[in-house]
């Protein structure tokens, strides 16, 4: 039986809602003009390759769907969690 600590929340955005979501974040124009790069590899992030996004020091960071970048993101998030728990 799982306890409360085993539950995790998954926040997701349907691709049909991404434009509105990016507008609310204030990055829609830069995103549509290919001005936003992946935090981990500097590739341009677009509708075809966006994997994730998160806040970092108030800024929005995007991650492309390159498996190496996804892995780096997972490690990065785990390290931040550990640092915040210390």
Main attributes?
86 residues; alpha+beta; two-stranded antiparallel sheet; 3 helices; 2 strands; 37% helix
Summary of the model, kept short:
This protein is an alpha+beta fold and about 90 residues long. It has helices spanning about 20-25, 30, 65-85, and strands at about 50-55, 60-65.
Cα gyration radius (Å): 15 Å
Number of continuous helical runs: 3
The main sheet orders its strands as 1-2
Secondary-structure element string: HHEEH
Q: Which of globular, elongated, flat, extended, rod-shaped describes the shape?
A: globular
**N-to-C CA distance:** 29 Å
Helices and strands: which structural class?
Answer: alpha+beta
Integer count of domains: 1
Relative helix content: 25-40%
Segments where pLDDT lies below 50 for 5+ residues?
none
The share of residues in extended strands comes to 15-25%
Average pLDDT level: 89
Number of strands: 2
Largest sheet: 2 strands, antiparallel
Can you lay out the helices and strands and say which pair or pack?
Blueprint: H1 18-25, H2 28-32, E1 50-56, E2 59-64, H3 67-85
Antiparallel strand pairs: 1-2
Describe the protein.
There is one protein chain. 37% of the residues lie in helices and 15% in strands. By secondary structure, it is an alpha+beta fold. The chain has one domain. A two-stranded antiparallel sheet has the order 1-2.
């Amino acid at each position: 039986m799982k306890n409360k600590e085993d539950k995790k929340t998954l926040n997701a955005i349907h691709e049909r809602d991404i434009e509105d979501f990016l507008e609310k974040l204030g990055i829609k124009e830069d995103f549509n003009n290919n001005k936003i790069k992946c935090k981990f590899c500097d590739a341009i992030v677009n509708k075809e390759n966006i994997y994730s996004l998160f806040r970092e020091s108030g800024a929005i960071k995007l991650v492309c769907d390159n498996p190496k970048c996804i892995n780096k993101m997972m490690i990065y998030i785990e390290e931040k969690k550990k640092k915040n728990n210390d």
